[in-house]
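B., you asked whether I could sanity-check this one before it goes into the benchmark set. Here's the sequence:
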Amino acid sequence: MNSRQRRGVILLVLSVLCAVGAFAGVLSVIRDVNSKVGPEVAAYRLKSDVAPYRELSASQFEKVSMPERWLSSTAVTDLSEIRGKIAVTRLEKGSLLQQDMIVERPELEAGQQEIAIMIDAATGVAGKINPGARVNIYATFEAENDNGKDQSKVIVENARVIDVGKLTALDPSQNSDDRRRTATEAVPITFALTTADTQRVAYAESFATHVRLALVAGGSDTVVAPDDRSYTLDEDK
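And here's what the prediction gave me:
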């Protein structure tokens, strides 16, 4: 082997050693990154905005993989956790779902039953009444004859709302009587009530001129005084 050949062999060996060193360096970097990042887990990202107090479904989310150490302890990693849950606030598109964003859908208590009625969207809901809210239910009744007086009554106090449906346009053909003449859109509201209160609401929905809701301040169970449970216009004269 002449000197030129020896130099070539030496350069080849050096090239191999450099390649091995570079490969080892890459493996070291990968091991270092893996040690810092850790294993990946599933998380769920919102495909679109979700309105508050709406029931959640799997179709609203897309699955993404993220390093476990980068997720908060409250991140939802199993989509079965949303079953029977509603959004507690407005959820923004692209946000990762967290456990504190969702709550259980309000359920019936012992002795209660559900009743749903359509409430005028403009005057009875105004977008502020949501599941879990407490409301007083008012009904106005026309006088039975010319000698009587139109009257407003509190028919149920502190009724608990358990569901708010979607805004629905009323059918004009079914909206021709005086009691519904001003309503063009309504929202189905479901309440959890005792049997007696359920009957009061059913009666008012059938025979009252209007049924309206008044939101009760959060955390309070306001009691309406007996003298304030009914009202006629001549009381202010």
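One thing to flag: Confidence is low (pLDDT under 50) at residues 176-181. Otherwise nothing jumped out at me.
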